[in-house]
Amino acid sequence: MLAEPDATVLHGSGNSMMSRNIYHNKNQDSSISISKMDVIIPFSPDVPCDNNGQRMWWAFLASSMVTFFGGLFIILLWRTLKYLWTVCCHCNTKKKEAQKVNNPANSQAADGTPKGPDEKDEVVPASEVGWMTSVKDWAGVMISAQTLTGRVLVVLVFALSIGALGIYFIDSSDPIESCQNFYKDFTLQIDMFFNVFFLLYFGLRFIAANDKLWFWLEVNSVVDFFTVPPVFVSVYLNRSWLGLRFLRALRLIQFSEILQFLNILKTSNSIKLVNLCSIFISTWLTAAGFIHLVENSGDPWENFQNSQSLSYWECVYLLMVTMSTVGYGDVYAKTTLGRLFMVFFILGGLAMFASYVPEIIELIGNRKKYGGSYSAVNGRKHIVVCGHITLESVSNFLKDFLHKDRDDVNVEIVFLHNISPNLELEALFKRHFTQVEFYQGSVLNPHDLARVKIESADACLILANKYCPDPDAEDASNIMRVISIKNYSPKIRIITQMLQYHNKAHLLNIPSWNWKEGDDAICLAELKAGFIAQSCLAQGLSTMLANLFSMRSFIEIEEDTWQKYYLEGVANEMYTEYLSSAFVGLSFPAVCELCYVKLKLLLIAIENKSELGESSILINPGNHVKMQEGTLGFFIASDAKEVKRAFFYCKACHDDITDPKRIKKCGCKRPKMSVYKQMKLACCFDCGRSERDCSCMSGSVHSNMDTLQRAYPLSSVSVHDCATTLRAFEDEHPSTLSPKKKQRNGGMRNSPNNSPKMMRHDPLLIPGNEQMENMDMNVKQYDSTGMFHWCPSKEIEKVILTRSEASMTVLSGHVVVCIFGDVTSALVGLRNLVMPLRASNFHYHELKPIVFVGSLEYLRREWETLHNFPKVSILPGTPLSRADLRAVNINLCDMCVILSANQNNIDDASLQDKECILASLNIKSMQFDDSIGLLQANSQGFTPPGMDRSSPDSSPVHGLVRQASVTTGANIPIITELVNDSNVQFLDQDDDDDPDTELYLTQPFACGTAFAVSVLDSLMSATYFNDNILTLIRTLVTGGATPELEALLAEENALRGGYSTPQTLANRDRCRVAQLALYDGPFADLGDGGCYGDLFCKALKTYNMLCFGIYRLRDAHLATPSQCTKRYVITNPPYEFELVPTDLIFCLMQFDHNAGQSRASLSHSSHSSHSSSKKSSSVHSIPTTNRQNRSSKAREASHKQK
Hints:
The structure is a single chain. This protein is an alpha/beta fold. Among the domains are: 267-367, Helix Hairpins, CATH 1.10.287; 381-518, Rossmann fold (3-Layer(aba) Sandwich); 570-603 and 610-615 and 625-746, no CATH class; 783-941 and 964-1017; 1069-1201. The longest helix has 46 residues, at 57-102.
């Protein structure tokens, strides 16, 4: 039907002219004698292998047509015969079934048994069916993509099809028909090999096909019909015809299936995109091949004279401009067949172009911009941050994580979130592009976890939505994230934020969750309540702690304002560093004083490792703890470089240096002391004698030290442990101790600078009188861990006070908790607020009574976690009622806490804190008659601050330092919880805070009267860089919560009472935060113009009190008197900082075993009337005079300040 034009098909002018000359040189007779058959099958001298120049394109086409129609005829014939046979057999079957129904006896043998399978009624032998089925199944397995063999075969066929298409592209530059020697043409040999493979694969497909007719008409079958047979004809005729080999491009339609077989395409969008592209490209290339064939051949009825020479790629170009309706006209079809094809192709191609191309562009445009994979950088760690990813959470995290005060942070941050970032967040990522990458995905999808290389990540941090209306649902989401990550990579370290304390128990159910390996859950409700509770013990402490664990840049202010001193303290942060070997053998107070005076560092705690290798953090442990090699210290400093001084310090090189900046690394190496030397040095520091005069060890101990070292390896142990160990050893090896040594081991330690009341003993060795009573009474006063005061569970009705009962009780020195909530509100976890106030390092008479004012329905839901704590009362009402507030004597309270459980249920962020703000303003506007309050207090036996005559003059007395009169609510100590940081501007009407000012720069936060959960965001990065930081925070603010206690609460959801044992009573021996007043007592001389450094050293040496900040009146720097009673926080002042008499000093105070004895009778008599009427506080003064002198001096100091 199609033929190559005689002369015009040749490429190159030389060949064309030669063809024309040869053609015109023929005589006229031969030209006239051409038969009509020669018109249909034209000849041309361009085919040198044929002397007549005759083309054989019809042979190639005929082979394909005969194969296709011949096979189609056979299939139809077979189906017709099979249909006739089935109809015929169906009639016979019906007759046999009718006979069986009429005569069922014929279906059985003579003996009544059914006929066997070998009887004549059996029609089809089973063996024949089984053979055909097995062959068909085998062929199906061979071509099925469900097996490895099938997948390999399918992929191989597709690859060979593309290879055959590539050969077509190469051969398209040659004439349509040419003579080719099979043995010399390499491309023909390769094409032959490919088509033999296609033939075999076609056979397998034919055998496996259920419907042979539909298989015969499939696109892939048609492609094989018109491409495989012509190759065999080419070998037989030694000539090649380009023909319909372009149909191999239709195989591209299967490209998406191949990629799915290889697990490359997994998403619906990617599959759809590849499908559209493959259909479009295959149609385009196939149509271009047909145009190339007809245009280079010509029309048969025109004797192929109207052909034109077009390359294949010109035809591709022609089809593209045709589909796009551009039609430049530089290339166009000349043949009738080509133009006819273009007419129909425009109809279909234009529709395809108009529908496919926009959809392809849309899919490409909608592809995840952040859908790549993270490429790890050698020598650089990376962390994965997921969860609640917003502009606020990310900016707060990056601000703290990448702060300049840290050492060079060589960590890349990879954010993973299932929602693409908005423009603001995207801009934030671009500003930190060197250290931040964002990928779109979900941690619940293992594929996305693989993309961010979670298995090689240093840690995974999960952020929580602090403002969600349903905290339990948010915690459940984060727990599912932890489960997914741990399931994918059990060894990965995870730090997650949790909103509710009770949901932390679910993390313990994850098998691979291990807090010992660095996994941590930062419970925002627990820490928020703990910070607020510590403010009840020492007002302003929440602000100081929040600033310590947040990275703040130093802001220098030249003016002498309160902001100047506050911001100088804000620049301090918490760091850890190993102590130099120069500190080995020194006691903790000695090291602490040396670090503060010489290195300008504040050491507050150390890490202690027990003999079993378990580490614990000791906060201001006292002088009984000696430094060992490799002790880790916790410092307060302005940046990480300053803390390096503690590591580089060398006594030989740096002892005479006055400028701490000159303390650098030196070349000295301290020789390692023997175990005997270390223990002897520790003992000598404790007894205060020189090594030569020390009698801590006998010669027998020294001679047997090797045995002792093997039996009791050393760590950062106390001298009591040394003494106990030595006594146990010397019981087996008797020796003589001096009488003084026996007294030291058997009683309290004595020192010229230490008061007996403040000295610590080993409660395991020498229990105090109170401990002896606790053990003898055999009653449960503490929980099973010994960390908290405990009482038997009480019904809520027994602790409910009416307004009149509360008024008659005359509460004072208590904590008023104003709580907004109802039956539908989320629980805030009041237990976390009460637990620090019921820590066992307080004596019972020191416990502040707690009164909850709020909805009884809400408090009933919280009561299950509160019924085991003593001195807890409930006044049903509302914090907005002044009658309720007056009933609980809010003007006599130590602290008023304002909380709300309804904050996250409001869409408008500015209205989230409306209840707390209204309650705070309501209290501040109240007026009180102080004379009535004093009369009520005295009628109940209330002793004003510092008036306990039962305490010695040289020991601290636990009495509240408060102003003589509280006549206005503005002087009531209040701390208000806020959700929205910007709402802090509404708390104080006399400040000038800008609404855009950061929270930590506002006056209410600096004064400790406002607290927002957003300040806890910095704990994520702080915990990542040092997991001991979170342990230290929990130790400071929770009152002693431990992982063991959390496991217990997860089991029973309540504290379990325990009998007092030496082991549980030993847990009471831990320091606590307090406030020290300067207007009276041994430090009064320093309070009036003295240096803070002198106070620091004196308090440390005398009482083992570790001072770390000042709570100063806001207007103390003014020369003119001021009536303002607001105070602000100054963190870690320098040594030369000048003190004023009204200052309150934040300090870490040791537990005093005997402090409870002086008030035993008073506490008992007060508790008999009502447990909440007793006065206690953690603001401490040291009285040296009687009641009148102390009160007058307080007034003088106040007047002087004004």
